[in-house]
Write a structure and sequence with these properties.
With 408 residues, the protein is of the alpha+beta class. Helices cover 26% and strands 18% of the residues. The chain has 11 helices and 15 strands.
């Protein structure tokens, strides 16, 4: 594959997730995979390892997921009457803020969010967003558990399995009130004469950032028809430019599939990248092989820098599912589990190894409050921050991050 993510942005580069998704839903975890499934695994793993993100598709026949009806979202969630309340069937309204890290002003967007949680002692609140939440969560688990074959603790499924070493994933209802996964529905404001001063100026609904968690699944409005109106953009470090991430439905006539974008979060990138940097492989003779070629084959998974550009005309809807590990676990817990999972690859036991991706690339390790307030002092050293938070429960780490950003 190319070392440049620009080629991955092509709308023709779409990986069909239908078969592994069905296997996940139907619990058909067989040891023998079909050629189609094996090829899908290899393609998706390779794309996420090299670029940190890719397009995936899901046949509409495989799920009861409602169609992406922009008018429904606007009338059900973003009408003026709904925006005046702070709760809608268990969902929480978030007004305009600068939570992605804007240093100048609030970002021209608003959102609703719902947490993926339930409790056997209480009646679960059913929201309008539940079908979307469950489908996008299953996509995340399919990728993490069945394709990347990562340990179960990398994603929260059952609080009883928080410290389990098995790959015992479940999507059945359980008491997971500590779950911090989020589904958010964003409405990005269109560009107006008051929000831009020049024809070439970029108006951002979400400022450049990386996501803090495990994996992110994006289902974006497919109404963009012109270049630069794609809304979601990812940064290409090779060419040092932002690349449009268009929904394939904007350029194809395929109406049989849903299309999503998935990308790696900071936590996964950190624990997998550190393992890749520390690990060595053995050749057929049993000798250690530390060549650059071998190391490039190790799991790397960069957490892609991305931003969201406001649309040129009408407001834009995006559904984003943020998948996190159990909040009681720490980065060191996850790193140790990765070592056990990939026990065939030797790695060091200390925390002084360097990650494949530079520490400063992770927004999890940056003080976003300093960025927003333009505090005139030396920024915290991201590597030092990593060592400070490495043994902290991730629930505390994430809460501290939310406290750094503007969040109404």
């Amino acid at each position: 594959m190319s070392s440049c993510c620009c080629s991955s942005s092509s709308t023709t580069t779409v990986i069909d997730l239908t078969e592994p998704f069905l296997n996940r839903v139907q619990r058909e975890r067989t040891t023998t995979k079909s050629n189609t499934t094996t090829t899908t695994h290899e393609k998706l793993r390779s794309a996420l390892q090299e670029y940190g993100w890719c397009h995936v598709s899901l046949s509409k026949d495989t799920t009861t997921l409602p169609h992406f009806n922009k008018s429904w979202f606007l009338s059900s969630l973003f009408s003026s009457s709904n925006n005046t309340t702070t709760n809608l069937d268990g969902a929480i309204y978030r007004g305009r803020s600068a939570e992605s890290g804007s240093t100048t002003s609030t970002e021209p967007k608003q959102s609703w969010e719902v947490s993926r949680r339930c409790c056997t002692k209480k009646k679960k609140t059913t929201t309008l967003l539940d079908p979307y939440l469950q489908t996008m969560h299953t996509i995340a688990v399919t990728i993490i558990a069945d394709i990347l074959e990562l340990p179960s603790m990398i994603v929260q499924e059952d609080t009883n399995n928080n410290n389990s070493n098995s790959n015992n994933y479940t999507t059945t209802a359980c008491c997971r009130c500590s779950n911090i996964d989020l589904l958010r529905v964003f409405l990005y404001d269109p560009i107006t004469t008051t929000t831009t001063t020049t024809a070439d100026e970029v108006v951002l609904g979400s400022s450049p950032h990386t996501d803090w968690g495990t994996l992110t699944v994006v289902w974006q409005d497919d109404t963009a028809t012109t270049p630069g109106d794609s809304c979601l953009q990812t940064y290409c470090p090779v060419h040092q430019i932002y690349v449009d991430v268009n929904s394939p439905t904007t350029t194809t006539s395929n109406d049989d599939n849903y299309f999503f974008v998935v990308h790696v979060g900071d936590v996964s990138s950190l624990v997998l990248g550190r393992h890749a940097a520390a690990a060595t492989t053995k050749n057929n003779n049993g000798n250690n092989d530390d060549t650059t070629t071998k190391k490039k084959k190790m799991i790397q998974f960069p957490s892609p820098l991305h931003r969201v550009q406001c649309p040129q005309k009408d407001g834009r809807i995006s559904l984003v599912y943020f998948c996190y590990p159990p909040p009681s676990l720490s980065l060191s817990n996850l790193e140790e589990q990765i070592k056990i999972t990939y026990k065939g690859e030797e790695s060091t036991d200390d925390d002084n190894t360097t990650t494949v991706v530079p520490y400063e690339s992770y927004y999890l390790l940056q003080n976003q409050q300093q960025q927003q307030c333009n505090i005139n002092k030396k920024a915290d050293d991201p590597e030092l921050v990593y060592h400070q938070i490495r043994n902290q429960p991730l629930g505390i780490v994430f809460q501290n991050k939310w406290n750094q950003v503007q969040r109404n």
